[in-house]
């Protein structure tokens, strides 16, 4: 039942999807992933899971100041509150990126559900769409509480999202969202969970990690299963899409624009001249995020020999990368266990509660 390819098969018509033969063609490939979703359920609108009303003073940094070495060039020229505002602006940009990324993942999953032939894969895509909607709602609630509204969607990110939505090639959508954007997102969530000083933000990103770890695990499994089945031309097309997404996200994470604006406002000399922060002036945890994602893309066989030179800055693994992978996995597993226990307790209480109108 699980030998049927997921990609590279004709898209069934609506009439074919009503046929018993189509429904009986279902594999069991995604059943373990779908059946586990109820265990890690959480509701952004329920304060028993997360309470967005808890205040945080933005005169304090959301992330440690020493994680932003680009400020070190002017140790005595940038007032402390300006440094804090800069760090919080970077956090705000990152959180807004999550907001749009979750919406993009939701829309891509809905498109994939229309395109995939395996009924089990369709169910998984719809289920993931539901979880992405939950994440988008969570980030919307957090941004509203701390900043009012998300930052505008940047043009490069908009173009990336629309390109993935518009392509007729399902595997291009898959590699862009499941391997690149969600891979980078999962590592970033882990970084924020370890680094942030805001308990509400820490709670939010760990809840999202419980789902995203499963999504990324599914993506790696499917990539290793499916990509060897592609022709060399198809493999190159997918590798090019992976790099296009990776490179766009690199430009967004390491963009020098906020630092250039700070230098202009404070009239600081020797500010960045290029569009990207210099290698020695980057958040080292952001750099680790890209190294780890490049390693995942390579492990899944999506970096062809033609594309390998483009990743040259990111394929050298640092000693702490494996440790951070392990820490992220442990964190996702812990919050999943906590949600499993809490949700089981709630179901048990509901089952034991007396029915309405029962006599006493």
Automatic annotation (TrEMBL):
This is Ferritin-like domain-containing protein. Signal peptide: none annotated. InterPro entries: Ferritin-like_SF (IPR009078), RNR-like (IPR012348). GO terms for molecular function: oxidoreductase activity. It comes from the Bacteria. SUPFAM superfamilies: Ferritin-like.
